Amino acid sequence: MNEQTEYSDGDLRNTGMSLKHDREWDYELDRIVEAVEERDASKVGLQFPEGLKRRGPDVADDLRELLDDDVTIMLSGQPCYGACDLDTFMMRRTDVFVHFGHSPMKESEKIIYVPLFSNVDVMPIMEEAKAELADPDDDPDVGLVTTAQHMNRFGDMADWLEERGYEVHTRRGDERLTHEGQVLGCNYASADVDADQILYVGGGKFHPLGLAMEHPDKNVIIADPVNNVVTIADTEKFMKQRYATVHKAMDAETFGVIFCTKIGQGRMEIAEKILDSNDNAYLITMDEVTPDRLRNFGFDAYVNTGCPRITTDDGPQFHKPMLTPGEYQIAVGNKPLNELSFDTFHGTW
Amino acid sequence: MNEQTEYSDGDLRNTGMSLKHDREWDYELDRIVEAVEERDASKVGLQFPEGLKRRGPDVADDLRELLDDDVTIMLSGQPCYGACDLDTFMMRRTDVFVHFGHSPMKESEKIIYVPLFSNVDVMPIMEEAKAELADPDDDPDVGLVTTAQHMNRFGDMADWLEERGYEVHTRRGDERLTHEGQVLGCNYASADVDADQILYVGGGKFHPLGLAMEHPDKNVIIADPVNNVVTIADTEKFMKQRYATVHKAMDAETFGVIFCTKIGQGRMEIAEKILDSNDNAYLITMDEVTPDRLRNFGFDAYVNTGCPRITTDDGPQFHKPMLTPGEYQIAVGNKPLNELSFDTFHGTW
């Protein structure tokens, strides 16, 4: 993250003002009610991402009014930061299970995915972002990506760029991604296009920073309509942190190799490869990978085969070095330091 | 907890010296190896309580030496504070699943429970505790309880008291408890005996404080052989905290009612009773009940139908009042304040 970024007029970061974009979402209650009636469901589970958990009770109230009295509505209290965080207990114990705010990771008749498209207008911030793009006469090629929340405007975004003389390059990354142009925190294959500049339209820096780490050769322009700000993704701080972690792990003798039990995060073959080649590596299975849970193990370093964003974004919070599988190979001397790269996930579950 | 307790000679609390009792445990490797060979197992899961997680790698090493190379050993990274905390993912995905340090909560052919009996000598601290017991000529009746770790010495403890003129009252609480005289953090039915004084022999204050809250009419003497100290259980601080929490919850309008999905903690009928009687109560399902996980819900107060020790011991860490089901009834005015009592669990799973 570029700490030197100057805040321009209208930049809403750190002002609390970005909440003004926190308008009503479309919870698609009709679709839920229809499914409940169709399946004669008596138990309905609702799972919201962390940022929207507070809306749960109101959505439950609205559903209660629309449904029979004997339908029990449950809210998931499990942590939910992404499409991987499906509450499998709730999925098994309810007749209809509604997951809000993420694209499908696992398809099932029982699960209803409600995407929660944002109603924020993206055009003003794209207009601002244009100053950071190369002049179309010099370099017309632009890759365009966004998140699940803004997919409903993706076509408009592409048209807007084309109208201004750009050649827009988009693709659907791989089978992990639901939509063309969509990125996930762990998958930026949609940016694997023939363009040196990528325009990311969406809230926050979480996704564009992953994108810039995965594609260090590309210029990633962030058009953030939620905070009303345009920035360039700068991975320097992250990369320094990763190099420091790898260096520290070079002194480690014992390694805890984490296999994450969440849907979409199991990479047992990678874990087993490490275990087979290192007698001082031990397999740990867990769902939430948190500093607290690892504190009581006495390993010198950890390798996380689960969510790469836990490793890179939460890394400094762990009491011992936390590595991606690729970083582990560097730490034990199997690969040179200059092969350090971002860990990504492909496939679904 | 009595803050005024004077530390006597030899009291090892807060000295770090209690670790000297942290000797080798008997991990019963032979029994594990036998089960692995009998079942031709290729995956073996090991789950340790938090305090013993650090021993996991050594136990894994010892097992590796005793087992075929193609057997994969996994360590559970799930939180483990009690018999309820069975790692159900690991249970499902391994051929032999070993749970160390707790009594069985769920019996299954696949699970091996290794109790990890303590080898600490309990007689010296019982000798000291005698000064806190009534003279046997005045009141010979003593209830005797201990934890799973010291069950192997339970007969000796009873004999020792009998030899000194006491009439020892013991019982197996109910089907939640494996042994006569055993207490769990959530079940003190073993102390439901015809005696005004209960001698608890075991480490720490966690169990005797629960015992004293459940049986406020009894004098609970703590003979702690691990910290080499004798104290009297004092619930005043805990009770004050509970009263304060209930008072605070009296102003609450909305309630999150937590159903814990862990084996042995599901009390749906209690949750449903609250939900049926209060339109401002909402059902939340989750496994680990932690302050972080509830922070994003906007409820004014919470009712925990899961582990009562989360509510009483971790209560102050939650940002909103966290109540037991009984405390909820007081907070909403269904019961008088003087009916505040300790929440206990009966039955298994």
Automatic annotation (TrEMBL), chains A, B:
Cofactor(s) this protein cannot do without: [4Fe-4S] cluster
Catalytic activities: L-histidyl-[translation elongation factor 2] + S-adenosyl-L-methionine = 2-[(3S)-amino-3-carboxypropyl]-L-histidyl-[translation elongation factor 2] + S-methyl-5'-thioadenosine + H(+)
4Fe-4S keyword on record: yes
Broadest EC class assigned to this enzyme: transferase
Pathway: Protein modification; peptidyl-diphthamide biosynthesis
Gene3D superfamilies associated with the record: Diphthamide synthesis DPH1/DPH2 domain 1 (3.40.50.11840), Diphthamide synthesis DPH1/DPH2 domain 2 (3.40.50.11850), Diphthamide synthesis DPH1/DPH2 domain 3 (3.40.50.11860)
UniProt keyword list: 4Fe-4S, Iron, Iron-sulfur, Metal-binding, S-adenosyl-L-methionine, Transferase
E.C. number: 2.5.1.108
Database matches in PANTHER family: 2-(3-AMINO-3-CARBOXYPROPYL)HISTIDINE SYNTHASE SUBUNIT 1, DIPHTHAMIDE BIOSYNTHESIS PROTEIN
Entry's family note: Belongs to the DPH1/DPH2 family.
Role description: Catalyzes the first step of diphthamide biosynthesis, i.e. the transfer of the 3-amino-3-carboxypropyl group from S-adenosyl-L-methionine (SAM) to the C2 position of the imidazole ring of the target histidine residue in translation elongation factor 2 (EF-2).
Official protein name in the record: 2-(3-amino-3-carboxypropyl)histidine synthase
UniProt organism field: Natranaeroarchaeum sulfidigenes
Designated gene of the protein: dph2
